[in-house]
User: Fold this.
Amino acid sequence: MKHKLFDNFRLGPVIMRNRMVMAPLTRSRATPDGLPTEMMALHYAQRSSTGLIISEGTVISPQGVAYPRVPGLYNDAQVRAWRKVTEAVHERGGLIFAQLWHVGRQSHSSVQPDGLPPFAPSPVAIENYLYNTRPEPLPYEVPRELTKVQIVEIVQQYADAAERAFDAGFDGVELHGANGYLIDQFLNSSSNRRSDQYGGPVTNRVRFLHQVLHAVAEKIPLNRVGVRLSPSSTWMDAEDPDKKALHSQVITSLNAFGLAYLHLVEPHIAGSTTSDAEMGAIPTADLAAQFDGVVISTGGHTRESAKQILEDGVADLIGFGRLFTSNPDLPARMEKRISLIQPDRKTFYAGREKGYIDYPTMEAEDKWRELKNHLTAVDEAILELEGRSLMDLDRSNELYSLFQLRKLASEAVLNY
Ligand code: PHB
Assistant:
């Protein structure tokens, strides 16, 4: 019988064709102006057999960026360019949400429009990590503390980006509230030392997220909006004395909004990498029951763990990140238990087509194998003919046509 991982699922107003979600993955292939490219449209289209794609982090303003070549949703040119991506995904029957991102203190003066340190809830620098730039990683800077007026502006930028996402044809948006980025910086006490209504008790620290949701709700229905949180992660100094109590309160507070989903990052994930289990890890199983709606669990899942967590009723949907980099048809491969292609971290962020749009589907792999077999057969025939007597008059004609065949076959293998 078909496992429910591969069954349809109703997500608010839309139907997903299976319960698999392509998790957001930064791939740094946009233009320097934050425009999605044709290559990105192909990349996402290739992965559209999954139930839902969540786009790579897409910045809501030029101040919200940490690294070059990530896409944005803060101007009309970006909306036009994203349309090509969403159309390509929809043409193949897929669904795609835009992940809205502001990195706060994870940015650096070298990429800020005014060349000054980035903005954050409080002037507290990240100390235990380095800003990953060339030629040498650099220490993070003490960020500029956001004024209340600036906070209201950023809240509005989220809402405008959500509206643009809709204009661009996205089926919904996800607010990136995880991994020590701006929303998470408001939530955790290590990065939020404010004494106004945005700091202090959790009810105050969650105010920024709530205000963003209220502002977004003015533009698009909240049953098309998800929120992503990483309860366990202390990556980028996202520290709090009681992360479980913090997230428990945040998650409970989200019940009032009627969201499309809550997206939780499992322990063992530190930003974009796997880490050792930390003391006090908080798996989705510990928190999901407090959320009244749909829960996505993401982070290091295998086919087996995905099925288990669905059967246990802990989560409704399973996100896969890195496996989607190298297996465009991951749902079919998982359903048919076909071996998976291992991801190649070297191509995650750098470069162009290689490692991005050149991973084969199962069918392409089969075809390629067939062509290779054909090539081997031709080679064997050539060898046999070459062994025959020089007096054989047909030999040269046959050899000539076999060489022609070989050329065609090897071209086909190369081009595949
Ligand atoms: C990354 O670019 O490595 C990255 C981006 C967003 C995340 C985590 C990691 O949430």
